[in-house]
């Protein structure tokens, strides 16, 4: 419905109510456009369609990969999307990522916590709702400025500019984009996963990422001590999430199945086997076992039979069982195939380094069974990207017979190498990593889990060093405010960003000429007028 059609529709409704004096159809139309999504479910349905379209576009051409950054506060997500619209003119194929790591570290009432599912589970859907509240406010702010420009054009009698602005309003692109939301290992059993998934979806999430770790033993994907569950346990949770989507009418909701098997050498359970070769038997086949003599059993031994032999799985004092060393990639491939065959849409393989060959090798094996398998990949800050890629170049040069005697592979992070040809080639590989991995390793979506955690720390450190040092106030003015002005950062007008102009517009709608508005000539925000 166009802007003018909304005005006409509002006028018809108002016309049926003789006591609705002072309600202006155009003001109703404006407020309606500034609040396009009335519920989180409206957002989930809208963004699910976007993700499905983007997945199809990627299948047609891997150059159409998608990206996101992890955001731990609504304001951070809002500023990210405002920046994307400013610099690229569109939010197409750019999402938000909601990191369980950052929720634990920054949003728990317990204070900073490690990424072990100890934070309040409801803090995650609360952050989804907060992110979308701020994205909707970004829409309201930008449209409000367009409405003000439209009024100016009309007052000036500039009909052509007025028509241009109305067309821009009709074709307005929202800041609301898909969120890939981290539900960890489901925070409990399958029922708990289902209940929490509903909260995610009701808050607006169209995409839920779930991992195959044991819920009460959950560890960050880049830490040691990870423990996986048998496939049937994980599949039950995937089904639980799908049921939640379908119950709430988001039939095209997206499920990302994450496997931590590459770095997880432990399991808490021996899988139930119905018949030889079934999925439970395949899971157990990776257990590190030793053959035992039935006459020499130890008290309390746990045994399984394998090919007619009695086997004792290696069990730790923690009551966890070990997998055979070197089986991580095989377990990852099996995990991924099983997940896609049982309701997941996308995969996440948590790796220990960003290596296209390693990722692509596993994806090729998965695609032998599931041809359109594709990944969400964590371009993690836990990787030392500089060192990893310099070592990859070093190894490639060595294999090609090039002279690498000027480099110490173990010390390639040193600033002494920053200006070298090796460092330049490594940086170029980092620059093209997302494009190359999308093409060669099946990565549909690239994300950085906790970049804004690091940027907040870095920028705060730089400001504190300057402001509390010799630079004093110049430390803020030169490094922050002046840069905001020069680079056109919208929140230099922080009152406007916080909604003061939206509030003034509403005051005028509600009270007419009697409105007491904040944005008059004495508002200091006017010092930042363009």
UniProtKB/TrEMBL annotation:
Catalytic activity as recorded in UniProt: D-threo-isocitrate = glyoxylate + succinate
Record Pfam families: ICL
Residues that, per the record, bind Mg(2+): 182
InterPro entries, alphabetized: ICL/PEPM (IPR039556), Isocitrate_lyase (IPR006254), Pyrv/PenolPyrv_kinase-like_dom (IPR015813), Pyrv_kinase-like_dom_sf (IPR040442)
GO molecular function: isocitrate lyase activity; metal ion binding
UniProtKB keywords: Lyase, Magnesium, Metal-binding
Cofactor note: Can also use Mn(2+) ion.
GO biological process: one example: carboxylic acid metabolic process
Name recorded for this polypeptide: Isocitrate lyase
Organism for this UniProt entry: Novosphingobium pentaromativorans US6-1
């Amino acid at each position: 419905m166009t802007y003018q059609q909304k005005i006409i529709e509002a006028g018809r409704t108002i016309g049926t109510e003789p006591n609705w004096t002072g309600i202006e159809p155009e003001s109703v139309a404006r407020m309606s456009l500034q609040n396009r999504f009335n519920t989180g479910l409206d957002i989930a349905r809208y963004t699910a369609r976007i993700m499905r379209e983007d997945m199809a576009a990627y299948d047609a051409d891997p150059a159409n990969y998608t990206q996101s950054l992890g955001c731990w506060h609504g304001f951070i997500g809002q500023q990210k999307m405002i920046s994307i619209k400013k610099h690229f003119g569109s939010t197409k194929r750019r999402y938000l990522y909601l990191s369980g790591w950052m929720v634990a570290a920054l949003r728990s009432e317990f204070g900073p916590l490690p990424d072990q599912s100890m934070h309040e589970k409801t803090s995650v859907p609360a952050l989804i709702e907060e992110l979308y509240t701020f994205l909707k406010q970004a829409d309201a702010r930008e449209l409000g400025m367009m409405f003000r420009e439209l009024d100016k054009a009309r007052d000036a009698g500039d009909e052509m500019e007025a028509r241009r602005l109305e067309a821009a309003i009709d074709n307005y692109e929202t800041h609301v984009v898909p969120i890939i939301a981290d539900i960890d290992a489901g925070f409990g059993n399958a029922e708990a996963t289902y209940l929490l998934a509903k909260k995610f979806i009701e808050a607006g999430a169209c995409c839920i990422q779930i991992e195959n770790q044991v819920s009460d033993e959950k560890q960050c994907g880049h830490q040691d001590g990870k423990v996986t569950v048998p496939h049937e346990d994980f599949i039950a949770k995937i089904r639980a999430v799908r049921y939640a989507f379908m119950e709430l009418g988001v039939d095209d909701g997206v499920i990302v199945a994450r496997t931590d098997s590459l770095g997880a050498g432990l399991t808490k359970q021996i899988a139930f086997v119905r018949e030889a070769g079934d999925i439970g038997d395949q899971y157990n086949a990776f257990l590190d076992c030793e053959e035992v003599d039935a006459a020499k059993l130890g008290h309390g031994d746990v045994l399984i039979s394998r090919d007619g032999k009695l086997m004792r799985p290696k069990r730790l004092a923690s009551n966890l069982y070990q997998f055979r060393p070197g089986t991580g990639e095989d377990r990852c491939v099996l995990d991924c195939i099983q997940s896609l065959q049982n309701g997941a849409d996308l995969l996440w393989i948590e790796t220990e380094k960003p290596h296209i060959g390693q990722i692509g090798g596993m994806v090729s094996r998965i695609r032998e069974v599931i041809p359109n398998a594709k990944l969400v990949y964590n371009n993690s800050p836990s990787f030392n990207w500089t060192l990893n890629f310099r070592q990859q170049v070093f190894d490639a040069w060595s294999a090609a017979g090039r002279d690498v005697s000027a480099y110490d592979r173990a010390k390639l992070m040193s600033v002494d190498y920053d200006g070298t040809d090796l460092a330049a080639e490594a940086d170029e590989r980092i620059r093209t990593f997302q494009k190359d991995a999308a093409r060669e390793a099946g990565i549909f979506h690239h994300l950085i889990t906790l970049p804004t955690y690091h940027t907040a720390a870095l920028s705060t450190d730089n400001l504190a060093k300057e402001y509390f040092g010799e630079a004093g106030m110049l430390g803020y003015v030169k490094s922050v405010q002046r840069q905001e002005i020069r680079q056109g950062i919208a929140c230099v007008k922080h009152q406007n960003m916080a909604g003061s102009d939206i509030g003034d517009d509403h005051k005028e709608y509600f009270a007419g000429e009697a409105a007491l508005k904040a944005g008059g000539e004495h508002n200091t925000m006017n010092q930042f007028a363009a």
